[in-house]
């Protein structure tokens, strides 16, 4: 097993933990999200703001770490490109992602959430709610990624 595959294997195990962590954060989002939806952002407790921050951070990290695994696969497949769009096209071809444009939408959610001011309750609610809705999408990609890596590199037919 080469160094790239060793790193990929270790990082997939790390993504297992990240998946559990983001699910935990999603489970805690109900009350803060309800307050934001009702426009009472100012009534969020310190604990609820911490929950929002943890969820935002975990979503961003999870999505970013999945993307880094895409790069590892591209290296393993001897794709020499610094353009991430080419790597995404490979992920689509390999069946790890269904649609490059959907991935980009989720990436933009991550970027947008990091720049939304908490005083705009509507925008904040939309961003956080869209992130929550897309957690299963990221889980599906992670599962496809794991299946591909196991089949292609660790248990080839």
Please outline the major beta sheet: none
Distance between the termini: 16 Å
Radius of gyration: 17 Å
Tell me the helix content. Answer: over 70%
Low-confidence runs of at least 5 consecutive residues: none
Q: State which percent range the strand residues make up.
A: under 5%
What top-tier CATH class fits best? Mainly Alpha
Element order: H for helix, E for strand: HHHHHH
> Might you state the CATH topology name?
Four Helix Bundle (Hemerythrin (Met), subunit A)
What is the CATH architecture term? Answer: Up-down Bundle
Look at the structure and give the mean pLDDT: 90
Shape: elongated
| Strand segment tally | 0
Number of domains: 1
Number of helices: 6
Structural class: mainly alpha
Structure description:
The protein has 157 residues and is mainly α. It has one domain (3-154): Four Helix Bundle (Hemerythrin (Met), subunit A) (Up-down Bundle). The protein has 6 helices and no strands. Helix 1 runs antiparallel to helix 3 and helix 3 (46-76) packs parallel to helix 6. The chain is elongated and about 55 Å long. The protein starts with a helix and ends with a helix.
């Amino acid at each position: 097993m080469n160094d790239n595959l060793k790193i990929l294997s270790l990082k997939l195990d790390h993504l297992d933990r990240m998946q559990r962590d983001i699910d935990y954060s999603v489970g805690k989002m109900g009350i803060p999200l309800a307050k934001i939806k009702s426009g009472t952002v100012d009534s969020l407790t310190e604990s609820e703001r911490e929950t929002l921050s943890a969820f935002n951070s975990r979503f961003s990290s999870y999505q970013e770490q999945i993307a880094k695994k895409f790069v590892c696969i591209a290296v393993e497949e001897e794709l020499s490109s610094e353009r991430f769009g080419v790597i995404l096209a490979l992920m689509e071809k390999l069946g790890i992602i269904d649609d490059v444009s959907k991935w980009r939408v989720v990436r933009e959610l991550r970027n947008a959430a990091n720049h939304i001011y908490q005083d705009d309750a509507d925008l904040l609610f939309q961003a956080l709610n869209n992130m929550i809705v897309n957690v299963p999408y990221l889980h599906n990609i992670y599962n496809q990624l794991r299946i591909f890596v196991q089949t292609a590199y660790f248990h080839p037919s």
